[in-house]
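Hi L.,

You mentioned the student needs an example of a multi-chain input paired with its predicted structure. This one should do, with 1664 residues in total across all chains.
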Amino acid sequence: MQTPQQLRQHYQYVRQVSEQICAPLVTEDYQIQSIEETSPPKWHLAHVTWFFETFLLKLHSKDYQPFHPQFEILFNSYYETVGKLHPRPKRGLLARPTVKEVYAYRHTVDKAMDVLFDMLEQYPDDKIQSFIELGLNHEQQHQELMCMDIKHNFSVNPLKPAYRSDLPTSPVGNTFAVQWHEQTAGVYEVGHDGNGFAYDNEAPRHPQYVPEFKLANRLVTNGEYLAFIEDGGYQQVDLWLSDGWHHINQYGWQYPLYWQRDGQFWQEMTLGGLRLLNPHEPVSHVSYYEADAYARWAGKRLPTEAEVEIVLAGKPLQGNFFDQEHLHPQPATVDGQWFGDLWAWTATDYHPYPGFKPLEGSAGEYNGKFMCNQKVLRGGCCATSLDHMRVTYRNFFYPHERWAFTGIRMADNASK
Amino acid sequence: MQTPQQLRQHYQYVRQVSEQICAPLVTEDYQIQSIEETSPPKWHLAHVTWFFETFLLKLHSKDYQPFHPQFEILFNSYYETVGKLHPRPKRGLLARPTVKEVYAYRHTVDKAMDVLFDMLEQYPDDKIQSFIELGLNHEQQHQELMCMDIKHNFSVNPLKPAYRSDLPTSPVGNTFAVQWHEQTAGVYEVGHDGNGFAYDNEAPRHPQYVPEFKLANRLVTNGEYLAFIEDGGYQQVDLWLSDGWHHINQYGWQYPLYWQRDGQFWQEMTLGGLRLLNPHEPVSHVSYYEADAYARWAGKRLPTEAEVEIVLAGKPLQGNFFDQEHLHPQPATVDGQWFGDLWAWTATDYHPYPGFKPLEGSAGEYNGKFMCNQKVLRGGCCATSLDHMRVTYRNFFYPHERWAFTGIRMADNASK
Amino acid sequence: MQTPQQLRQHYQYVRQVSEQICAPLVTEDYQIQSIEETSPPKWHLAHVTWFFETFLLKLHSKDYQPFHPQFEILFNSYYETVGKLHPRPKRGLLARPTVKEVYAYRHTVDKAMDVLFDMLEQYPDDKIQSFIELGLNHEQQHQELMCMDIKHNFSVNPLKPAYRSDLPTSPVGNTFAVQWHEQTAGVYEVGHDGNGFAYDNEAPRHPQYVPEFKLANRLVTNGEYLAFIEDGGYQQVDLWLSDGWHHINQYGWQYPLYWQRDGQFWQEMTLGGLRLLNPHEPVSHVSYYEADAYARWAGKRLPTEAEVEIVLAGKPLQGNFFDQEHLHPQPATVDGQWFGDLWAWTATDYHPYPGFKPLEGSAGEYNGKFMCNQKVLRGGCCATSLDHMRVTYRNFFYPHERWAFTGIRMADNASK
Amino acid sequence: MQTPQQLRQHYQYVRQVSEQICAPLVTEDYQIQSIEETSPPKWHLAHVTWFFETFLLKLHSKDYQPFHPQFEILFNSYYETVGKLHPRPKRGLLARPTVKEVYAYRHTVDKAMDVLFDMLEQYPDDKIQSFIELGLNHEQQHQELMCMDIKHNFSVNPLKPAYRSDLPTSPVGNTFAVQWHEQTAGVYEVGHDGNGFAYDNEAPRHPQYVPEFKLANRLVTNGEYLAFIEDGGYQQVDLWLSDGWHHINQYGWQYPLYWQRDGQFWQEMTLGGLRLLNPHEPVSHVSYYEADAYARWAGKRLPTEAEVEIVLAGKPLQGNFFDQEHLHPQPATVDGQWFGDLWAWTATDYHPYPGFKPLEGSAGEYNGKFMCNQKVLRGGCCATSLDHMRVTYRNFFYPHERWAFTGIRMADNASK
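Structure written out for the whole complex:
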């Protein structure tokens, strides 16, 4: 566990990153909630602050006066045991507090946290410190979401504005052939062992029998996915899960979320604005249904989360993360593409590990209650901070969701 | 018809009022669309400008360069013959153009209009001038809507912010007994005679047989409406139109839109923030269904639009308008309450007058195509500019709508 | 008013017609409710019986024992003041009571009514007799609806079964040119004068000023409507009311409800099964929106209900009614087509006549509460019994509804 | 594999059971589809017949003439690769073909199958015989569904009719204390080994590591579930999965599907009509969300499907099945309650086993495409035929579904 000094430094770093993400925004951009699943950047900035106020300052800083009596309702996300919530789809309707007031809220809380750190340096307290650590990881998770949400907010505007006009485009090189990592069958230990920070949903570490399998060393590319489209993939019912088939037909999906066609040319909305589609980049913003159909078309399958974890455990934790400031997936290199770029859908449903125990109190709502109807994704993405990533990290989305930085990694049975 | 000089002055006056309405807003406020029926203030500011750009500058100012090629799509409201539209429910999702850019758009168009006025002073042109007059009335109509929309936008915020904190509250005096204007039966001429500006839907003036009737000299008050509520009005099925009964039950309506209860006390959201409900003020923000049920409960009925017009034609055009800067209905005085305060629902369905001819071209979409499923309202409201009002003015809303400044005026058959 | 003897005979006649309508049905057909607006034939048979049981036997036959304690809930249509209702969209889910039990219910009530008639012959009672008259007109109204509902029920079945295979097809003759009835302006009396039976909504008779106008002597034909379609009528936004335009686009309407295309040929579902579309027959099963758009395209307009009534008042009450057993509109003859065939949409909103008083008690729910958001139709149709028709008869449907036998009659201003 | 002779006998037996299930129905009952998830009994009878016609007679009986050209569309359930489908929610709108015609369809196909059996006795054919076996299991699955659907159809009728009035009620004895089967950790083989019939989704048999666990020897009872309700279980947010909490609040669920309250007393709709709730019977017709919340409240958890299979593999295949003709769950006896009564929800998401291969052709749609968003249930129920049950049988429903015969079995970690 980090010392109070380290934690203070970590706190300052993480808090600053959130504001750095918002630096390119104008006031109006902070306000937008383009779909129910996303939140306005202003809301994110306030909500992560509310977490520190509610779970730390109100409980452990005896002189702390809440910044505003109603922020508890406005900026609670889903902690129903804490109290009333502002309805999620209406976050974009809150003109007030203003952006300026939200920043004032942040800075007031930051100052109060500074006092709390003073106290901790004198009287270290494992429980408080681990809650701060949770708060920082929570804020980092929202940083990822802010990037995803901002991308969606900008995409619905017919003017197709660029969030950042200084983002470089990726080289138009070539796509390396997939190399397959082969793994023998056996009982493997998966999950987090308790050394260092992890979310409750990653524990306990437990044995699991895994048959022999192969895993691709890079993500599926735009070019490969285009071949699926051109082969009529979206029209062949036998490639699709039943729920997926109904979903793509109900919404008229014919290609990934951010693609559009201009005559002969495919374009893609990015955080750098509208760009030509680079066939060598990994295909992004696809649903589980599309990932699964692609895999069936390709004669392969999606990996389980255990398979991905077993392989990732032997790879260096590096890749195209938030820290690289691409904010967009990059073509794989010959060294492979194991972490970063895009959260890869796995075939595994989000479920509790055997013996799973949620955190006590309201923090127990962090993960456990979502363990139904969602799929696990692994590996991090170009909007994930490197120091937020772990081999055992389990992300999760509903199978129809596409606004996150999601991608596809192929697996196969060894016998083939 | 106004001379070009008068028109230029009128133009400057009207355009300035729109900006004056927005003066109390912060940037975030410009962005909100709280329900599908409303529009963000920013959108209103741009849309009324688009009207001048599209129907005047693009057609009659030969050197005029459109401010932005896509504004035609973004800021067209419903003129489907002009071209593609941005979907109405998504107006609140446009962070860009920014508020600042919208003001720049306005000022660019204002300058170009100035040049057009120069031209008109040299070469007057009735057709162009009458289109400018239409554009100004159009902008004034949107000024009303801006007040209504801003009120709704602020109301959905749990912080219940005040749009203007300097608005005075009305005196808590007493409610004057209704006096009934009595009118004999006969064939009356109603509708606009073509002298001065009017919308196409007010013409042609035409005869109509109207039986003997009585019309109340003031609107129904909060106190009177409260008696209806306390008598179980919202629970008595026989007071309600069938569609109304289903609507209030589906949405759980139990009182007017902006009322809320704090223990013993009724409060009301206003443009001046949350206030105690003054029983002497006219009841506002009720649907047609509620107005109709109230009238039935009171043993009276709603007037037809002809009845209201016939009576109003004999009254001085004065009352509580936008110009008074109350932005809230006021208690009636002993002199009666004939114009202003609240648009009074009439029992008449919005329909074309016999021989109605819509304007030619896209302007023909202004009114005619809405002549179905809506009810006519008469008299103007506290957000209407006095110089925008006429005896023959026909406003219209769907019977379930409540966000407008709507109220109730009683009528009765003479025989009673 | 009919004597008790006459009334008994009338009762027997009307009751028998309902069963005659159902004679071609098999048990399964009685059960179907193809859309929310329609009801299963079994439900109609029971509901009209419930009317006599509830409003006559329970009140005036002192020894009468209700047939079944729960039928009051199951077969109440919309008389909310009577008590609880079975939800309208779920009428098709009631397998029990069976068809056989419903007929037993009918016959039990018929016998009890017979006893009531014995009593009335001894002690005539105007109030009771007029309620029986209302009950008979109510049943006749439902006979019309049964024909319409059965047609819809059969139409949704891909097997396209014929309700009656013995219905003759109309001659493929030619279409007569429209002749225009011209009427001078003036104050006319419209509405029912109280002599003989009429619904409450037809009274009181009252003066109305009507400008000079012209009315077509026949309905618009399939052939004429096809010209509208082929001219791109469904694609020209300026022909449509705003609500209509959204409706046809939301539901993808491109032609009348029962039309379908088989290569080159238009077919139409009828009560006699699928048939070739006869261009000389009146176009049927169109919504108000379509009727209105057609009229605009044709350079004409829909008539008001007063205009239709004034003209019909001078014509003999004859035409293609239920009694003719076509159960389908027929081509107009040279004598004109004033009554029957199809209910013609008028431009008039369904509203109370000046001084309208609903019936007392629950029967007051019969008409008044529907006076909002609907349009008046005039003239009767091929499923209306001749002895149920009157010049002042006001039918009403929502503007988007098409399953009724609706059609289009043109009107025009005289000046043209 | 069964010989052709055995198969013919099996065919006759299974086909006869479907008709036996429908024997208590009147014609109207055959027609009802009370919710989208259910189908009318008539449709089931035809659909299982369509399976034999489509996959056997049309392919292998060269003289066979299809009974009706459109039945392929009407009675295809979800085999999209076969061709067009009649929309699922509209199965209840098909009055034709009549019940009588559907029975004629069945008997025509039965006769043609008889000829096919003659051929097979001469020329046995493994592939054809295994398809017949699949068809019979398919029909048995639909027999279960028919019981469930009929129960729901009868339940929505306010008359609460009994499907069979001769079904005995269970004894009001007492509830035995749960005994826990304890199982040590290890790598277990689960899934079907290919000996005898099984669906494709049960294969291949494969190793799985399972930690030490305990499994209850009977289902949770009505009395135990009532304690959960009375403890405010439906109001405590921390007991519920997030999706479950939203679902129960959206639909206002406060108790199992078929419960209702009459003053002090709980009643329950059954296939024998409305009955008093017996607290010793297993609680039935609960969703996964309710089962999961109950388990959390009880301090236990739901088992995985592997855990259930491992334990069931060691128990005799006996219990309260369709063959017992209770058609309702019975109180557990001291010997335990391992099979039958109710399908027990497991915590496992329906997913393909490692190396899963769907059947070839359209039969491949049987199972695989549903492997998303559903939960596995195990053990069979009181509507399952005993000879249709196997230890490895995997049933599956969406977590919100309640109309099936579902129940709750508790599991626990061994360490407790």
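You could point out the following to them. Chains C and A do not touch (no CB pair under 8 Å). The longest strand of chain C covers residues 213-219.

Best wishes,
N.
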